[in-house]
Specification:
The chain has 582 residues and is an alpha/beta fold. The protein contains 20 helices and 23 strands.
Length: 582
């Protein structure tokens, strides 16, 4: 079939072929071996001419396996032949306990392709492809193949799916039928079945950075407001005697600040009464008795406005306020996590804006209004339910609760976000990702509890946001750069890689790319991955559904892989319009 090498230019050999001899029907993309002495160089047929083929050098077979790249090109006298089965197995793996079946090679009569679990899952990887190309089915098939391997049970797996449309519930809900020790948990924003779990996030576990993202903060001055709010809500939500003294001091200080402001008496009264309405204590409520010399007035009576526009008992109320001031108490404002509700947070934010004088400055007033409006809209919408958590729980206990259902360990946790808008969904995914990352970093044995975060429709969340400007980092960028050493891995699933953060894409080690046709996405992949060849880019636009190009550190060479349909399949098929119309 193959005759002699006609010429070698750079990384390509032009080889004469015998058209009169017995030939395979199609040589394109097939792999050949150049043998010369002890040297065996692997090549791939890239172009077929009239009486020759052009073969690109890919690597070299050594005693201990295959190595990508070549140090020395084969000689012109090399013997050229098709790759044999042992060499093919060295490239695409064999069935072993720590390998899993990825798919089949359409070039080699559906020869099975195996991948080492550790080489794929110990690094970030991405599954990319246009809508309908087979991304969701391919993802589901990979996970099903891993769990179906009886030789390597994965009882301690932590696969967390952030599911934009609830696609994976059908694919994984029968997990326990494979092994009774396997369990699946479906956490959702719109519970439909008794087996589903409501999505609930303890608002008090959110950090300053989380709140800034949730409330659409865009300026650093807003962080100052939220930082003060967090300190105050931890005081106002407590009921002990020490906290009561601090509350009274803060209320008295805030009311004094209002009394000495340049507002009208009516304006002062409105703000003071709002504080008392939201943050009252036994010492500060509308009916609190305030003792004068020979008479008593209620708190509200002290603020009656006389004919001159002044408060009727200004001296009495000033003396009462001063009796509760103690600046040393502010040193005891807690920084530790305390239980509070989202309503408590709104009250604390309102108090912060009034008591700290933020509304006296036009720029700060506008910045604070954005925070208040956003928080108020959440408190008065169905999204409030997401933050209703009945009891106090630590971060470690909360993460544990996510991966446990009815005292059973769940290897797959599916968090369905289809019930919330894109902005809040992005925040929720960032908050969860930050929690998993913080939890993993706190483990005494680094990377002892790995988490894989599967981000379906990742371009909705892993974007080029202004988080770096606002809070100094983007959680996905941070996980992409640091997550591997702590065992937190990103698994990106997207149809629009061009919209994903460059930092994240640059840190991904392995890719499964299904059919992609958008020129911007193809150009982006080519620019972001300097080791990818032009011919791989060309193949991406002509792949069949369910077929992908797999390449990266887990693969010896890029390989076209045909994946089986998952059983059961995710809810990712197109609408059957004809059936619906009947």
């Amino acid at each position: 079939m193959f005759l002699n090498i006609l010429k070698i230019t750079e990384n390509i050999a032009t080889v004469a072929i015998n058209k009169g001899g017995q030939m395979m029907p199609d040589l394109m993309n097939m792999h050949v071996v150049f043998e010369s002495g002890n040297m065996k160089v692997l090549g791939e047929v890239k172009n077929i001419l009239d009486n020759a083929v052009e073969i690109k050098f890919l690597g070299e077979f050594l005693e201990n396996g295959f190595r990508t790249g070549i140090v020395k090109k084969p000689s012109l006298s090399s013997r050229i032949r098709m790759i044999n089965e042992l060499e093919l197995q060295a490239l695409i793996g064999t069935k072993k306990p720590d390998n899993f079946l990825l798919g089949y090679s359409p070039l080699y009569n559906n020869y099975p392709i195996y991948v080492k679990i550790n080489e794929l899952f110990s690094n970030h990887f991405a599954i990319l492809g246009s809508s309908g190309s087979g991304k969701s089915c391919g993802t589901a098939r990979i996970i099903q193949n891993i769990f179906a391997n009886p030789e390597m049970p994965v009882y301690n797996a932590n696969l967390v799916f952030f599911d934009a449309y609830g696609e994976y519930k059908n694919a994984f809900s029968n997990l326990s039928q494979i092994n009774s020790n396997y369990n699946y948990k479906f956490i959702t924003t719109n519970k439909l079945n008794d087996s589903d779990d409501d999505l609930r996030i303890p608002i008090y576990l959110l950090t300053l950075d989380d709140l800034a993202l949730m409330l659409n903060a865009t300026e650093h001055s807003q962080l100052t407001i939220l930082e003060r709010t967090l300190k105050l809500v931890r005081i106002f939500s407590r009921q002990d005697e020490a906290s009561l003294k601090v509350k009274n001091h803060l209320i008295a200080k805030a009311i004094l600040a209002i009394l000495f402001s340049n507002k009208t008496s009516a304006g002062k009264k409105n703000e003071i009464f709002k504080i008392i309405h939201d943050t009252n204590t036994p010492q500060f409520n509308f009916n609190t008795p305030i003792q004068g010399v020979g008479f008593t007035r209620s708190f509200s009576e002290c603020f009656e406005i006389d004919s001159n526009g002044n408060f009727s008992e200004s001296v009495l109320i000033n003396d009462y306020l001063l009796s509760h001031l103690d600046d040393s108490l502010e040193e005891s404002l807690p920084n530790d996590i305390q239980y509070f509700t989202i309503e408590d947070l709104e009250i604390a934010l309102n108090f912060t804006l009034i008591s700290e004088g933020f509304q006296e400055n036009d720029a700060l007033r506008d910045a604070s209004t954005v925070l208040l409006v956003r928080l108020h809209s959440i408190v008065n919408s169905n999204n409030k339910q997401l933050f209703l958590y009945p009891d106090f729980i630590t971060l470690e206990q909360y993460i544990t609760s996510l991966v446990v259902k009815q005292n059973n360990r769940c290897q797959i946790v599916n968090i369905n976000l289809e019930g919330v808008d894109d902005n809040l969904a992005k925040v929720l995914v960032k908050v969860f990702s930050r929690m998993f990352f913080d939890f993993a970093k706190s483990r005494p044995n680094r990377a002892s509890i790995p988490f894989h975060l599967f981000l379906e429709e990742a371009h909705r969340y892993v974007q080029k946001d202004n988080d770096l400007f606002l809070i100094g980092y983007n959680i996905f960028d941070r996980i992409a750069k640091e997550g591997r050493k702590y065992g937190v891995l990103l698994d990106i699933i997207s149809q629009r890689p061009v919209e994903i953060s460059d930092t994240v894409i640059a840190q991904i080690s392995n890719f499964l790319v299904f059919k992609m046709t958008h020129p911007a996405d193809l150009n982006y992949i080519e620019k972001m991955l300097p080791n990818i060849s032009a011919d791989i880019i060309d193949k991406m636009s002509s792949l069949q559904p369910g077929t992908c190009i797999s390449f990266g550190s887990a693969f010896k060479i890029p390989f076209i892989t045909s994946m089986q349909m998952p059983n059961p399949s995710p809810y990712s098929s197109n609408c059957d319009v004809a059936a619906a119309w009947k």
